Amino acid sequence: EQQQQILSLDQVSKRYGRIQALNNVSFTVPAGSVFGVLGPNGSGKTTLLGIIMDVLKANAGTYTWFGQTPHEDLRKRIGSLLETPNFYHYYSAIRNLQITAAVKGRGEDDIERVLQLTELWERRDSRFSTFSLGMKQRLAIANALLGRPEVLLLDEPTNGLDPAGIAEIRELIRNLGQQGTTVIMASHLLDEVEKVCSHVAILKKGVLLTSGHVDEVLANEDMIEIGAADL
Ligand code: ATP
After folding, report:
1. Keyword Transmembrane helix on this protein (predicted)?
2. Which atom of ligand 1 is nearest to the CA of 156?
3. Would the CB of 43 count as within 6 Å of ligand 1?
4. How far apart are CA 147 and CA 120, in angstroms?
5. Residue 85: strand pairing partners
6. Is the CB of 187 inside a 6 Å radius of any atom of ligand 1?
7. Is 29 helix (H, G, I), strand (E, B) or coil?
8. For a Cys-Cys bond, which of 56, 83, 166, 178 suits 50, CB 3.0-4.6 Å?
9. What is the dihedral of CA 96, 102, 107, 108, to 10 degrees?
10. Is 21 in the pocket of ligand 1 (CB under 6 A)?
11. From CA 128, how far away is CA 163, in angstroms rounded?
């Protein structure tokens, strides 16, 4: 079975002074997966996302995107919410997306597609300022999807949302996976990863404990040793 690799990390380490934020981390993200990077606060998730987005430099190790050494052209294939878009509060959802579409050279068909996908089509003419936090997060995802990325990076995508917003975002992420967009998401919530992800890598204090299919990893008895209760 040949499966394209979206992202592969090989022995990546990162220090901040005396703090070893990542220690020889290696794992592979297969195409079409919803890949959870799971770990408690301070385990190195955000640092890892920063490195693969090239905003932080690793002290050691390498990584590849789509089997290639990172270069500028690959950036177009990666969508991310790491830099939150600056939406105009007094503009409608669709107007905000039209601005991004103009920058990225996308058309009305793309705007409609991402509004449908995020279930914001009905609310497209509402002002951004009237949106709930969950809707704002969905619009941010819609905005990132406008570029038609092959992979979407999310850092704690349900943080700060109410239960309805959390459920909506989780469903959206599952749908993205089903439609073939690979998703890489950081989370400190074990139940979120169980509900949403097909694959997981578990980090603790910068060390990769295990990675693989969610079903296999989370069924493992070692989860008790790993300290699943902390997650
Ligand atoms: P959180 O969910 O709280 O953001 P995390 O799993 O994303 O946690 P990181 O933010 O990557 O973890 O942090 C990993 C470790 O590196 C922590 O001990 C943190 O205090 C430390 N750290 C992160 N950024 C810096 C920095 N800029 N300078 C110094 N130490 C840092």
Report:
1. no
2. 2
3. yes
4. 17
5. none
6. no
7. strand
8. 56
9. 30
10. yes
11. 20
pTM to 2 decimal places: 0.92
**Nearest CA among 148, 179, 208, 151 for reference residue 31:** 151
Which atom of ligand 1 is nearest the CA belonging to 40? Answer: 6
Q: Give me the residue label for tokens 């079975």.
A: 1
pLDDT band per the 50, 70, 90 thresholds, residue 113: very high
Is residue 218 within 8 A of residue 191, CB to CB? The reply is: no
Q: Which of 55-69, 75-89, 168-182, 190-204 has the lowest mean pLDDT?
A: 75-89
Host H or E run for residue 126: none
Cα–ligand 1 centroid distance for 69 (angstroms): 25
Coil, strand or helix at 186: strand
Residue nearest to atom 1 of ligand 1 (CA): 41
Q: 200 CB contacts (<8 Å, ≥6 apart)?
A: 35, 36, 37, 38, 193, 211, 212, 214, 217, 218
